[in-house]
Amino acid sequence: MEKKDLKSMMYDEVLEEMAQIGLPSFRGKQIYSWLHEKLVPEFEQMSNLSKKLREQLEDTYICESLKPIEVLTSEIDGTQKYLFQLSDGNVIESVLMRYKHGNSVCISSQVGCRMGCRFCASTIGGLTRNLRASEMLDQIYRIQAMTGERVSNVVVMGTGEPMDNYDNLLRFIHMLTDEHGLNISQRNITVSTCGIVPRMYELAEEKLQITLALSLHGSNQEKRKSLMPIANKYSITEVIQACRNYFEKTGRRITFEYSLVGGVNDTEEDVRELCSLVKDVNCHINLIPVNPIKERDFKQSDKKVILNFKNKLEKCGINVTIRREMGRDINGACGQLRKSYMDRAKGEEA
Ligand code: SAH
Question: Which of 64, 93, 135, 161 is catalytic?
Fold first, then answer.
């Protein structure tokens, strides 16, 4: 019989499951707490359970625990990038960013990605598989356990398209914000999407207090299409309408992410179009100087161009920030560390 993934089960499901194997409810509570509060990586360490019970759990369930195989620390800002191995041998990456307001972890939602955005390293090898809730949670759990520092913010902005793994994403959010687990506030969670419109409407109906970030990157349909294949499926008008709906249903302001690519989407015309596109949306724009990857020849916009872009947006009355580049010296951009690891592994095989 295939072992069940106990760490992907919600609180009530764990109690139910444990009742079915004949355990009193306090045992189920203890086990949930070991997994999601005390963050132990294996059943063996659940020291208030009998040896017999620990062995029984071991025989029946998986205690998903990611193995750190590389940790890089930025000398510039203390950002840490983690390369984790999953139990099937796949590798994913996560990032810990230390801000004044607390620690933020950026997690991956899939192994690889099938969205094909032109400037992104995560999509180059395509999609391997979705991550389960336990594998998303454990990125945060391992980082908190290894550093001994509390994680207060989580952004789902690593490798993968979270809306392409929707059911596991929702399960993950419910468990991360559960009072029996890390109890992270919904308001401290951001989910970033390339714009899968039907899922954005579904998410709005969940009435969560999480922030939705939309990767916009283009100020009109043509530009967006040239950078993001998903725009062939859902037009820019539909995507913006889905953002408006998200705000109406949840009261949560939308974040637009706009990666500035030198000479591609950073002109005067782009900023004018962008202003009129979003000016009646309750939003915040996050400008990201594109992080050049070696597989593509995109370049960062000049510093002056970036500042001018920001000023023009502000003049339109739009709330805007330039994303600080965290961990530039450690393959900071999405998917770069995993990609370089896989290239190295291939090199060793050859
Ligand atoms: N699939 C989701 C989340 C992952 S990417 C999404 O598309 O939103 C997180 C953000 O980083 C997205 O806005 C993405 O477009 C952006 N990004 C990816 N590679 C980048 C790069 N090399 N430079 C700048 N931004 C990049």
Answer: 93
